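#struct-help
A.M.: can someone run this one for me? Single chain, 344 residues.
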Amino acid sequence: MPHDPVLRFPARLSDQAGLRELGPDHTIVGDSNALRYVMYRAERVAPTNASVLLLGETGTGKELVARAIHNGSPRRHRSFVVVDCGGLPATLVESELFGWERGAFTGAYRSQVGRFEEAHGGTVFLDEVAELPVELQPKLLRVLQEGEVERLGGGRAVQVDVRVIAATNRDLAEEVRRGGFRRDLFYRLNVFPITMPALRERREDLPALVHYLSDRLARRLGKPIDRLAPGSVEALQEYDWPGNIRELENVLQEAIILARDGTLDLRGFTGQPPGGASLEAGQGGEPRSLASVEREHIRAVLDRAGWRIEGPAGAARALGLPPSTLRGRMHKLGIERPAIHARS
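D.P.: on it. Structure tokens below:
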């Protein structure tokens, strides 16, 4: 059956495309009206010092747009500091954000600057800002209003010049009504809101996204992909993508690992990866890691090949890899030959 070649084109970019090229692994891809509007707003606010609030579902690319705004600003040559407010333990949030003085707590043998001082002259991106503890929100408000931070255990204010870009997938206005977020801080952050569209709202961007992501992931995995089976994109466009672009990356990663003859085949996609395993196979409903998917697949191929690596019937040939590369992958992933298959 003939296959259509993967189209070798970058997403057609608008006049605002200067904000989109953010480095080899940070590119905003797509040309839908929904994404064009996001980039229009990003372009307009980038040269200013205004605070920006990025809204939208998880996995929609809020950090990429934050980087684009920073790169389009006069602060582009200074630090872009990312703070995952939801990933920091509550006991460490204050010291991470604002730093500490020597002797502030047990083990504080020297003073340490926080993320805001680290970003002086640049931009701080507060991801999942709704997770910031209520008791620390006045300190963030002080940074926005006065440009000052006070280190933990310190008695003096330190002047900082930072731009704050915040992001959340929660309804901050509702959090304010519930008392979980300060109203005055909400207004300080919500100066210029930008709502990221969900992937299901920009399905026309899927062909460009599949090209860009599959090319990047294939190079990272060491599995050349040069063809896309007909009907693959159409199958993806019928799915609603609750995990958005992050979920799309997971699907493409597994499809690339399973691909043969350099052909990426997604025609059977129905909300599960092409291998048929659930996207929520991990604990807590989290997508399986790339390493676990790769380990499982290599073991299955080795089992079918009787754990023979080289030769016409070997696993390396079936996987489309040089034997030395397969051995390296096995070592990295901790895959050992069962005793029953051991050979001298």
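A.M.: thanks! Residues 121 and 281 are 43 Å apart (CA to CA).
D.P.: also worth noting: The first helix runs from residue 33 to 45.
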